[in-house]
Specification:
- The protein is built from nine helices and 20 strands.
- The strands form five sheets. It has a five-stranded parallel beta sheet with strand order 2-1-3-4-5, with helices on both faces. It has a five-stranded antiparallel beta sheet with strand order 9-17-14-19-12, with no helix packed on it. A five-stranded antiparallel beta sheet has the order 16-15-18-13-20, with no helix packed on it.
- It has helices at 11-23, 38-45, 62-82, 103-121, 146-155, 173-181, 189-192, 198-212, 223-233; strands spanning 2-6, 26-29, 50-53, 89-95, 125-131, 133-135, 167-172, 194-197, 245-246, 250-252, 255-257, 269-275, 280-285, 291-297, 299-306, 312-318, 323-327, 331-337, 343-349, 361-362.
- With 365 residues, it is an alpha/beta fold.
- Among the domains are: 2-131, Rossmann fold, CATH 3.40.50.720; 245-362, Jelly Rolls.
């Protein structure tokens, strides 16, 4: 499937690109606003199966918010009307706030009308997705969501303050991406949206932060628990890389002993591998799975790269000084045996392996 996408550089854009990559879709970026170029946009949209419009303006003066959202919609509408082969479907990432009394809500509603009219004029199906509050890995604190702000502050050892303890409808960005890409029906989005108060979210994040401080895995008994934990632990990569947890290795005349993983609840599976000298394992990423690597014997390098980035993090690991490294979601990763003998590695995952739904996608580091 060919996907054309606006707003690819934003928070939801990152998650949508990652989901598209996992599904094997090809993706073309459509630039709007000051970077808009008619011919470039038409080339990206022409012949696409689905055009997803994510780009929007939700910060700035009233004029900037209104004019920005309408400008993006008008540019895209013009492309639709002139492209030789229009997409089968136009999906608009709208907001549950569309049509309310705010300037942002009015602008989103008006943009939807512009896009729908253009789609109908060329026979393209128009899907208006009213997204609730989104959260997820690599969201920006004090900008994308209150969840990101809480995670940022808690990781820094600070105590967040609640100014307005209101009800929220929360949807993880990977679930939103699945809906936008059509791999999950729009009618199922409501069942994926979790109601929580701001104070309830903060309470759960505080428990996660306290539990995970020394590498203990918090209880993961629901998809929301998993999404919230993955969101929190992504902040161990922002801005410093603090991934390895040192393990307490005890040694005496009988040999050595150390704990690999403590989990407070939920599924889990432990696996073991040997890796010959010079061999690399991995070269894949996960969208939701928590996966822990612990080298028991030998020396190795664990390398990982955030999707769509060129920066690679590298960690030297040695069984004589064991550490646990949890692979961040949406980062492709690998482990390479650097020693002259077999490498012994233990792996822990938060779920029982299902070969029909492995949440494992090939991508070179």
């Amino acid at each position: 499937m060919k996907i054309a996408l606006t707003g690819a550089g934003g928070f939801l854009g990152f998650h949508t690109r990652a989901a598209a990559l996992s599904l094997g879709h090809s993706l073309e970026v459509v630039r709007v606003g000051t970077e808009f170029q008619q011919q470039e946009a038409m080339a990206a949209v022409d012949g696409s199966d689905r055009l997803i419009h994510l780009a929007g303006v939700n910060r700035g003066s009233d004029g900037e918010v209104r004019d920005g959202n309408l400008e993006f919609a008008t540019q895209l509408a013009d492309v639709l009307r002139h492209v030789p082969s229009p997409p089968a479907e136009l999906v608009y990432a709208n907001s549950v706030h569309a049509g309310n009394a705010s300037v942002y809500g009015q602008a989103k509603a008006e943009a939807a009308e512009v896009l729908q009219a253009a789609a109908e004029s060329v026979g393209t199906r128009f899907t208006n997705v009213l997204l609730p509050n989104l959260f997820g890995e690599h969201s920006r604190p004090f900008y994308n969501s209150v969840m990101a702000t809480f995670c940022h502050l808690l990781h820094a050892g600070k105590v967040p303050e609640i100014l307005d303890d209101k009800d929220l409808g929360l949807l993880h960005a990977q679930d939103a991406a699945d809906v936008l890409l059509g791999s999950v029906p729009l009618k199922d989005m409501e069942s994926l949206t979790v109601p929580r108060t701001v104070s309830a979210v903060l309470c759960q994040l505080q428990e996660i932060a306290s539990t995970y401080r020394n590498g203990e895995i918090p209880a993961i008994t629901s998809n929301f628990d998993l999404a919230l934990f993955n969101t929190y632990r992504s902040f161990r990569l922002q801005p410093t890389q603090e991934l390895p947890f040192a393990l307490d290795r005890r040694e005496d005349a009988r040999g050595s002993f150390f704990e690999v993983c403590r989990s407070q609840g939920g599924e889990g599976q432990t696996s073991f591998s040997t890796t010959a000298p010079g061999v690399t394992r991995g070269q894949h990423f996960h969208r939701r799975k928590v996966e822990r690597f612990v080298v028991l014997s030998g020396t190795a390098e664990i390398a990982m790269r955030r999707l769509f980035s060129d920066d690679i993090l590298r960690f030297a690991v040695d069984g004589s000084a064991p550490v646990a490294i949890d692979m961040p979601t949406l980062w492709t990763h690998q482990i390479t045996n650097l020693g002259e003998s077999d490498l012994y590695t233990m792996f822990w995952a938060n779920e029982i392996f299902d070969p029909n739904n492995s949440d494992t996608y090939s991508d070179r580091v």
